[in-house]
Design brief:
Blueprint: E1 3-8, E2 19-21, H1 24-33, E3 35-41, H2 52-62, E4 68-71, H3 76-91, E5 100-103, H4 113-121
Parallel strand pairs: 1-2, 1-3, 3-4, 4-5
Helix pairs in contact: 1-2, 2-3
């Protein structure tokens, strides 16, 4: 199965080569049915009740992960909660230690070239 990279956000455009999803339901469908190399997640989505933290909790509950996970949310509290949830899953041996989890907030309107390189390097 070919690996894909996924970018979940409802505002920013995805880096080139990434599958773009706007909801946690779309993202969970991809996690259930594809081998995902890199998963980049936002916290704040269109729905006020179905956000990135809920997705991360579902991923942990179902033990569905990507090889690399980046939290790119500009919401500092929400992004840290997502990151901490994933790191706790690693400590609890629910999520493999080999999965690289990064917290790399992105500005809403512009992705600096050096930050974009993070996505190009692991595509």
């Amino acid at each position: 199965m070919e690996k894909i990279s996924v970018f979940m956000d409802d505002y920013r455009s995805p880096p080139e080569g990434y599958v773009y999803v706007e909801t946690i339901d779309e993202c969970m469908a991809l996690l259930r049915n594809h081998d995902i190399e890199h998963l980049s997640l936002d916290h704040d989505l269109v729905s006020n009740t179905r956000n990135g933290l809920m997705l991360v909790q579902m991923m942990v509950d179902e033990q569905l992960f990507a090889n690399r996970i980046t939290i790119h949310s500009a919401n500092s509290v929400g992004g840290k909660n997502m990151y901490n949830c994933l790191k706790q899953a690693q400590k609890d041996l629910i999520m493999p230690q080999a999965i690289i989890v990064s917290l790399r907030p992105l500005p809403l309107k512009y992705i600096p070239p050096r930050v974009l390189q993070h996505y190009l390097d692991i595509k």
